[in-house]
Amino acid sequence: DTYVHIHWKGAAELVLASCKSWFSIDGSVHPMSSDKYNELKRSIDDMAMSSLRCIAFAYCTCELTMVPREDLDKWQLPDDNLTLLGMVGIKDPCRPGVRDAVQLCSAAGVKVRMVTGDNVETAKAIAFECGILNAKDVASETTIIEGKVFREMSETAREEVADKITVMGRSSPNDKLLLVQALKRKGHVVAVTGDGTNDAPALHEADIGLSMGISGTEVAKESSDIIILDDDFTSVVKVVRWGRSVYANIQKFIQFQLTVNVAALVINVVAAVSSGAVPLNAVEVGPFS
């Protein structure tokens, strides 16, 4: 009655780093030795390379007198001296058609980048499955980067590596925003897809923000320009196709109008100067427009 258990869950490598002991299958608690830590770290890496999202569970004991009676939401929970309870790897398979959609985007000149809060190894494995990454990309060190590394760069350095980045793991909402800003400063037209509240800053900053209509939060929808009603990445290809079609039609219309109107204007000016009469009046020029 004098102690309470505080339970933690989250990114496996971050939770493991705070654990000083581990809970065995027989119910006993053992100190976290360096050999055990390395064994668990290898397990996390193996799961991550298999495109599994690894989550760890831990707990610590705290004296009841240390728990505040008021303003509990402002209390800084103890995150040291944790005891590891276990780890799980969760598979989040790519939706059907995503790989084909990524290839279509690449063929259309649209570079697809993955910015995620997942482990870098997990993000890399999923990017391979989706076709975002290939063996040639992995050879470049700056193709795959951790959010913390990108965040700590200077503004000039971020602009230099932004073009090369294909996968960013362990990113924060601010990292997504910094990447969008760096790409825009380089002169790129940036589109961002997202569904969470933490995606709102990047969605708002992007030239085109695309939020998810089913799983997206209201904050994300309000910050975006387009809402994808079916939550399917393949719909992005349709957005690009229709957008370029409208843009091409506008160009053709302007080109046609300029050609006809300029020709009519030149004829009238030359005729007016040479003969003093205008061959085409407003009624006759109207059908051309």
UniProtKB/TrEMBL annotation:
Superkingdom of the organism of origin: Eukaryota
Keywords linked to the UniProt accession: Magnesium, Membrane, Transmembrane, Transmembrane helix
GO cellular component, one term: plasma membrane
GO molecular-function terms, A-Z: ATP binding; ATP hydrolysis activity; P-type calcium transporter activity
Membrane-crossing segments per the record: none
The protein's name: Cation-transporting P-type ATPase C-terminal domain-containing protein
Aminoacyl-tRNA synthetase keyword on record: no
Methyltransferase among keywords: no
InterPro entries xrefs: ATPase_P-typ_cyto_dom_N, HAD-like_sf, HAD_sf, P_typ_ATPase
Cellular compartments annotated: Membrane
